[in-house]
Amino acid sequence: MIPAGDRSGADPGAWAITSARAIADTCSMGTSSFMQRSYRIAADGQSVVCDTIAARPDVDALRDAIAWRRDALSRAELQEADTVLALRALMVLDDMLESLRGYEEDVPLTLTRGQACMLCEILGAYVTERDVDSYQTPEERGRIERLRAFAGPLMDCCSELAAAQEQRRERPLTV
After folding, report:
1. Both 46 and 9 in a single domain?
2. Average pLDDT over residues 54-65
3. How much is the pLDDT for 110?
4. Overall average pLDDT of the 139-146 stretch
């Protein structure tokens, strides 16, 4: 629907499907979780970690997605070592996020490459499987939209961690 407006051409936004005032160049877009990132050498002296900030509701949405994945894995037969190790890695990640419960707004996170990739995989699987055309509760819809909103920055984090790890391997630190 084209909004009614000045048809003389004086206000070109009036003829647009979306208002000219709604584009990124002219309005405040805010920031998303995982957008502010820095990388450093981990305490082990070998690997690279990412320090980032995530909003409390985003961390809660991640924890819900981790719980969903953990439940799916725990229902499978745990006879394969890879399944048990994946379940354990999910529990460690969830415990780390739970330990940050005291932060009410901006939650500081330190992620390894493996943890960031695991979050990316879980986030993608959750959104793909749970975003269906049938009825979803408002809470579930909100969770899906929240996870979808920071999928890009989280994928960027994974790529940058991989590049930083490769750079670290090519140029070892000398003391």
Report:
1. no
2. 92
3. 93
4. 91
Range 162-168, long-range pairs (CB < 8 A, 24+ positions): 162/113, 164/39, 164/48, 165/47, 165/48, 165/113, 168/41, 168/46, 168/47, 168/48
What is the per-residue DSSP string for the chain? -PPP--TTSS-GGGGSSS-GGGSTTTS-----TT-SEEEEE-TTSSSEEEEEEEEHHHHHHHHHHHHHHHHHHHHS-TTSHHHHHHHHHHHHHHHHHHTTTT-SSEEEEEEEHHHHHHHHHHHHHHHHHH--SS---HHHHHHHHHHHHTHHHHHHHHHHHHHHHHHHHHS----
> Residue 88's Cα: distance from chain center in Å?
21
Q: Are residue 119 and residue 158 in the same domain, yes or no?
A: yes
Q: For position 155, what pLDDT does the model report?
A: 92
Structural domain boundaries, residue 61: 33-170
Alpha carbon distances (Å) from 34 to 57, 125, 158: 13, 19, 11
Q: Distance between CA 129 and CA 131 in Å, rounded?
A: 6
Residue 76 lies in a domain: yes
